[in-house]
């Protein structure tokens, strides 16, 4: 049964990617692009027939933020706003374009090979993400039917197109789901490594450290509950051993998870604030001209030092989000954004409803942060939360994670991002 469910999920995920490519191709040819004042990478060479054909097939996957990822993969981190995007996905794209797709160089330019690499890579990664999500759901929900349904709905989520476009969403999902699955299997070290890689793909991978913290705290409480009878000496030895072990694991694990983001911010600091890295020496003239026309900031000794370099914590990422994307508390609450709020409303309402239903199923358990069961207070074994399904105790930390992301998104982010 498990093998057949896995096979079904994999086949359905692959079919959803084929349909995504097909619909992208159809609607990209029928509907003109929105003339937004967004970053668009220039073409330095005349496209070949192969480039034109590939753009017809997959050009819809290279819009919006995909332009940044493809630009970084081709030229590196040149403009200041490029530092809003973490390096793992562009690095993998460039490696695939130069190796696996290298033989296509006579027919396809580097840009086209990067776009093809992103489409192929995200297709494979998305299928793997759906399979890992199924395995994670089985471990958490203890219900194969519900786990399969969850994975199928994941394939049909409203933001599904971004999983195939040249975005880092798919690789972030795979790494995050894999980290959660290994944590459910009591493999915290492997989980930390996967969460760290997810942070190298997207900045919100940092909050995955919360799963590690909660799992260790819960483990300590479960092992030290009053039912376990120890002598005084044994009790204190066990208590200190567990606390020190968990504290060390959480501390080191959190550092490992945050490290990719921190190192990337340091690289940005060296590039713009110290001029220790000076890519301006190798920037093609067309890109220098684009920077002058658009006012893009370049690193180098001839450029003024950015204001964020003088902040107490000179973090380039937060500065870019604030300056280039106008991300901030309630900044998106404008009348002209009403259509985007309507677009995001179904997912927001569903998220709020799910959190409410989970809390109402056992408020006592939620008030105690998912750390204590009612039966520890003298109730019967069958009382409290069910052992399987959405209302089971294993789901608590995932509900908290989803609700926190939802709240942050509604308050700080561009609201249309909340379609997934």
Write up this protein.
With 420 residues, the chain is mostly helical. It is 62% helix and 0% strand. It contains 16 helices and no strands. The chain has helices spanning 2-30, 49-58, 65-75, 88-98, 110-141, 144-155, 161-164, 169-184, 188-201, 209-223, 232-272, 285-294, 316-323, 338-361, 363-367, 396-412. Helix 1 packs parallel to helix 6 and helix 3 crosses helix 4. It is globular and about 75 Å long. The protein starts with a helix and ends in an 8-residue tail after the last helix. Mean pLDDT is 86; it is low at 376-382.
Please state roughly what percent of the residues sit in beta strands, choosing from under 5%, 5-15%, 15-25%, 25-35%, 35-45% or over 45%: under 5%
Q: Please outline the major beta sheet.
A: none
**What is the approximate shape?**
globular
Helix content bin: 55-70%
Structural class designation = mainly alpha
Order of helix and strand elements from N to C terminus: HHHHHHHHHHHHHHHH
How far is the N terminus from the C terminus?
29 Å
> How many helices?
16
Mean pLDDT: 86
Give me the Rg, rounded.
Answer: 24 Å
Pick out the low-confidence regions: 376-382
Question: What are the key terms here?
Answer:
single chain; 420 residues; mainly alpha
